Amino acid sequence: MKTPHAVLTALSCMVALAIDPAHAHAQSRDDAPELSRGLLRSLLGPNWNLFGHLGPATTGRFLLQRPVGAGGGEVQLKGDDGFSAGLGAGVDVLLRVGWRASYTYTASDLAFRTDNGDGSRTFDLDDVGQIGNHTVALEGIRYALPAESKFTPYASAGVLATWWVLEEESPQVVASGGSTQYRWGATAAFGVQMRFDEHAKARFEIASTSSRNPFTGRESFRSPDAVTLDEPTRVSSMQYRLVGVYYFGKPKAPQVARRSRAH
User: Fold this and answer.
1) Would you say residue 97 lies in a domain?
2) Does the global pTM surpass 0.90?
3) Could you please report the per-residue DSSP string of 16-78?
């Protein structure tokens, strides 16, 4: 999927998250001023939160190559199992809708993995180097139940900017375009949230990120000691996060006053 399509898809999801289907048809133009004041009260009220997360992460394939002199053998360059950690801030603007901004650092060891389709490990090579990325994301959140419920599933979607960093160079992987590569993309997550009291909540979520591949482009990382067969346009990462959330006050749903209608 090309980057513009991915970002448009993420933005569409964010818009969909911000709409409460149960109330969309019930609100008329007369409710707009009250709704605006309710949103303002939410933004200025005690609905803000800070959070931090930590957990394992996996990174997809960067390159598909044929080692020199390997005949018909093929090998993948990918990020071996790593970890991610981050922090951020969020706000619940409606009963089931919120926004969050976050920073995440992810690191993993680069490795070659045999891809002959026969289960062999002929070309496996560990400790090729280490790759990390610094990611800033903006997401919309949609809760299945009110955000202050003791338990609620939720989903999020948004856009991200990523700075890929080649931490350690080796003869197999070099930073021909510089040790840092900037890319952008999209992210989505699914999880559950549990409330312990008015201030403390915990989440478990699975997040998927997709950004442009730092091994593609005129200025990019390179693996020069093999013949490249495929350079995926995008590379994905799966992160399994345990999240701690601190709310500054008990979230309050905005009250929308409805005018009485004459019969």
Assistant:
1) yes
2) no
3) HHT--HHHHTT--GGGHHHHHHHHHHHHHTT-EEEEEEEEEEEE-EEEEEEETT-TT--EEEE
